[in-house]
Structures are given as C-alpha cells and as structure tokens.
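Private note to self, pasted from the team thread so I don't lose it. Backbone tokens:
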C-alpha cells in the first residue's frame, strides 16, 4: 500500500500535514502525536520581527467551528531559526514554513533568511493585510498575487506554496495568478471572514470585531474551492478547511488535492492529524486501493 505523494518536487511519505497556526511548530503536540508519521509539519506563521498579535478576546466558538483574530502572533524569524527548525529536524518528516508579513519587503526578508535552512517548502500566507494598500489582503488582487509570487520565487531556494484566501469573488482567478507568477503549488482555503455578537453584553465577541472562521462548517466551501482550483491550474493543491477525520480528507483528495492539512480539529483532538493518516490507510485497505494517487482528483 503506497501513501506517498510527490508535492511540488518534494517526496512525502503520506499526503497529510498540519494547518499553519493550529500546531505551533510541533513541540506542543509531540507528546500526543508521533511527528515521524506525518508527511510534513507546517509551522505557525513566521514574520521578520516578533508580532504581539491582536488584543483579547481574540478567539470564540461558533456553530460547527470557531472564530479567531489572533493576528498572527509569532516570535519572529530569529527565535524561529534558533528554536523551531532544530526541534523539527529531530523528526523524519518534511518541514513546511509558513511566512507572513505586512509588506512585500517583510515577506522577502523572511524568505531570504530561510534560503540556507534545511527546510522543504515555503508556504506564503497572502491573507495577511497589506498595510500599504489600506489593509486589503495581498491575496485578494490577482495582479498583486502574480507580482508577489514572482518576487518570492526570485529569492526562494525552496519550492513555494501560495496560500490562498477564500474571501474573493473568483478563487480560480487568484490561483491562476499565483501559477503565472511561478508558484510551485497552492494551498487553500484559509479562514472565511466572520463575526459573532454577544447579545447579553451587546458587544462583539472578538475585540477585533471580525475573525477568521474555521472548522467543520467551512468544509463544503473548501471542498468546492479546491475542486475549482485543481481544475484551473496544473500545479499541485494542498487542501484544507474543516477536516476532522479521514473521510473529510478523502473528499479533498478526490476533489483534486494532492495533500491535505488538518487544522482546527487539533484543538479538540490532539491526535487528529495522526488519526487522519491511520484512517487513510484503513480506507485504502478496506477498498483494496494500492496507491493513494488513484484517488487524487478521481471525481470529475
């Protein structure tokens, strides 16, 4: 039984990774999950300098998921290089580093700092608000996506995944722009923008007013977008959005995703990502499938 896949030229033992921002850099989950069993670990977003994140409250539950307005709090690239990469290098898994920034120059600084590191892929979070464009996310303008992808590719020594925002009119157009800019892969979806109001306090549940919605409720939207993108571009797709178990993961794979990422489920079930790997093996065994690649994009 073969679960291995080639993703943007990188060999993965299986098609399962973690979604950025839900798994730290692996250390806090290592006592629950054998990181060696994962195709890759995707780190929390790292910026050129430490970010404190947004004011609290910045997380709340919703029907079928949660809202977060963490604001990409992170310790910055210096501590990341000193602490997180050496930790992950102890394990037999690929390392995908998620990169964030507030200007293109901030992204490029991190990409350059990572160029000589023993990591496998970069995931560029273009859902960050662009401070030079009034706060609109980098990933909402196709021309900007293409230009930014091209600039990142000039500096990057590792394959580049562009992480797409679902908060757009046409996700396929954005994916094609990333491909035109030279992206080696795309990942989607990032969170959907949502809001919750505390009716007793007559206040927003989040200090930021809005937050990113994730969890099972977003999965049908995510599966649809992954299907659209997989049919719009020729580069591989990393699918995510509400995956709780192997059945969910299989929907994304059959829709065209070469890899999948488990995110919010990690908060409720620390072994979720390993459970998905085991569930994929079980499904393949039960259905006499010898190679996971038989399932990728099998639904037309």
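Design output:
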């Amino acid at each position: 039984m073969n679960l291995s896949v080639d993703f943007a030229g990188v060999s993965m033992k299986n098609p399962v990774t973690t979604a950025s921002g839900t798994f730290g850099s692996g250390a806090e989950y290592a006592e629950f999950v054998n990181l060696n069993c994962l195709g890759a670990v995707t780190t929390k977003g790292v910026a050129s300098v430490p970010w404190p994140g947004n004011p609290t409250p910045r997380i709340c539950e919703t029907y079928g998921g949660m809202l977060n307005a963490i604001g990409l709090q992170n310790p910055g690239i210096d501590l990341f290089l000193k602490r997180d990469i050496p930790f992950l290098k102890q394990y037999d898994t690929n390392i995908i580093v998620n990169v964030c920034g507030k200007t293109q120059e901030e992204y490029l600084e991190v990409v350059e700092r990572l160029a000589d590191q023993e990591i496998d892929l970069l995931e560029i979070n273009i859902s960050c608000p662009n401070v030079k464009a009034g706060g609109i996310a980098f990933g909402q303008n196709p021309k900007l996506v293409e230009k930014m992808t091209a600039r990142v590719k000039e500096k990057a020594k590792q394959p580049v995944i562009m992480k797409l925002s679902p908060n757009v009119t046409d996700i396929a157009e954005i994916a094609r722009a990333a491909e035109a800019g030279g992206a080696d892969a795309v990942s989607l979806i990032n969170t959907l923008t949502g809001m919750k109001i505390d009716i007793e306090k007559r206040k927003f549940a989040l200090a930021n007013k809005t937050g990113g919605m994730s969890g099972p409720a977003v999965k049908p939207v995510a599966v649809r977008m992954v299907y659209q993108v997989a049919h719009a571009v020729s580069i591989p797709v990393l699918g995510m959005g509400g995956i709780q178990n192997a059945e969910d993961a299989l929907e994304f794979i059959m829709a065209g995703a070469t890899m999948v990422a488990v995110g919010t489920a990690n908060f409720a079930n620390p072994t979720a990502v390993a459970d998905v790997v085991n569930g994929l093996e079980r499904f393949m065994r039960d259905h006499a499938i010898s190679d996971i690649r038989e399932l990728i994009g099998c639904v037309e």
